[in-house]
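Dear Dr. H.,

I hope your travels went smoothly. While you were away I took the liberty of generating a structure for the chain from your last submission, since the lab meeting agenda had it listed for discussion. I wanted you to have the full record in hand beforehand rather than looking at slides cold. The sequence, exactly as received, is reproduced here:
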Amino acid sequence: MPSPTGRRLADRRRKLLEQLARLGPVLRASLIERFTQCGKPGCKCMRGEKHGPATYLTVSYAQGKTRQV
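The corresponding predicted structure, in token form, is as follows:
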């Protein structure tokens, strides 16, 4: 017989799985901020003050491919 804690955990897990099922399609993605260096001789980025931040969304697809937006 499961302990009271074990039963609570199993109930919690079941409820969370039900909530996830109601969400519908979910993207596997990361939000990334990048700073870049352009390489122009007189630019501030050559002194260490890089351009940015630029924000990118990186999405991973089931086929193993990724795409940055």
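Two observations you may find useful: The first strand starts at residue 28 and ends at 36. The helical segments are 4-23.

With kind regards,
E. W.
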